[in-house]
User: What shape does this take?
Amino acid sequence: MASSSWTFAVFNLKLSHSRPALHHPKNSQCLFSKFNPHPSFPSFYGAQFKSHTYLSPREPLIQYSRLVSKVGAQSEGSSGGEANSLDSEATFEETFSWSSVILPFLFPALGGLLFGYDIGATSGATISLQSPELSGITWFGFSAVQLGLVVSGSLYGALLGSLLVYPIADFLGRRRELIAAAVLYALGGLITASAPELNVLLVGRLLYGLGIGLAMHGAPLYIAETCPAQIRGTLISLKELFIVLGILLGYLVGSFKINDVGGWRYMFGLSAPIASLMGLGIWTLPPSPRWLLLRAVQGKGSLQEYKEKAIQALSKLRGRPAGDKVSDMQIEHTLASLKSAYTDQESEGSFLEVFQGPSLKAFIIGGGLVLFQQITGQPSVLYYAGPILQSAGFAAASDATRLSVLIGFFKLVMTGVAVLKVDDLGRRPLLIGGVGGLALSLLLLSAYYQFLGNFPVVAVAALLLYVGCYQISFGPISWLMVSEIFPIRTRGRGISLAVLTNFGSNAIVTFAFSPLKELLGAGNLFLLFGIIALLSLLFVIVYVPETKGLSLEEIESKILK
Assistant: This one.
């Protein structure tokens, strides 16, 4: 049985041909490095190179990089000289300027905040819209169908956006897609806020939903493709935190404006200035270097021209002077990796390639996670939050807006836990622990409604357990896995299918909830969701791999093939 120990060393290296060749790390955590075609150079970019061509005194860099070596006994079955050698693995962490990482994350993440804001603001806006005294309109008397269209209009738009982006994702590119999302967000918010009649309001809701569909596709793509590998999990989980922040912001705006005449116009309209900030910010960012190289390998332009653009984009993303040597070498490595992936294949994947080979495996993993994220019944659990807290004697439960803010804060705290731990513990432990907690909480809620009705503390504990476990598992980790698991050939189309799966299953659960509640009753409904949660736990254990610390190229070469 092999035993192992971990050793750490700090390296401060100079770029020099006179340096002795170093052992090539087996598992590199570098952003773009997969293998080294230049053996005279160290085959990693995690180390901080002492090169005065790009280190800026104005931007403090991480002043060290850590080599993590795993040394263990040789496994059985080794032969020859390998029998006496140590099996070692080394990972190198890329040095980067935090100030240069913040903006490429922040502006795309505003797309998630605006998605969450719509969820939170709509809950208060529908109350305001239906009030004869507070709506400020003469067409406030909505039918059930009309109210459903107002509430779900953005969901229909998101579904449509996911469909539209599937064939054009790689043509648009991540940056242009996010700019289009910001424009749709702003237009949708302004049209909805100024709507003189119901039909105009519904058009605004649909446009806003189109923005959601594009943003939820483009934001995780851009962040995953541009950030350093060792903080990819943290940043994409932070995007989920922005969604929760958006929900909380929507609840807060609703609570402040709920008693104002025409308050719903303010609730919907506040999204427009945030969307404008998002669009202007993304306009200042460079395109994804990986997307530029993808277009080059697909034969969409001059290889040298796209390569130079990719080097300039990476230099800007890392806060280095244009055309620095480190960025040049990183791009060379990624380009070599892409050429290897496209060897003996069509220059551009077929329309159905996402359902074949490694792409199909990735879709099963990513699509399965976002499907189970919805069909484990989160909307249903939150629907019962008010009655559960009221039964336990919480006075705040009598006020819907205050209750929403309370739950929003708790979701925010638990998402923060996931953000802090995802690159430390890894994806699988958070998913397994969180989904296991979901199943337990749903079974407890079922028991409460069937035979533990005299013990409201059980229901309150189960509710908080559910919300907390969801926010450390399915909430952030599903989107993180979706953003990193697809091969680059089909990443754009694969993520659009995953987004479509997410919003489609959301719509099904939303529409099926009321009939199922009447047919089964609350106890049996939560029992059904609990059984689905157990199945999702089995799915995670069997199918979902650990991707912590791997570059996107390493995920493709080591996990999908």
User: Anything to note?
Assistant: Residues 491-543 form the longest helix (53 residues). The CA atoms of residues 210 and 248 lie 22 Å apart. Confidence is low (pLDDT under 50) at residues 1-92. The two ends are 27 Å apart (CA to CA).
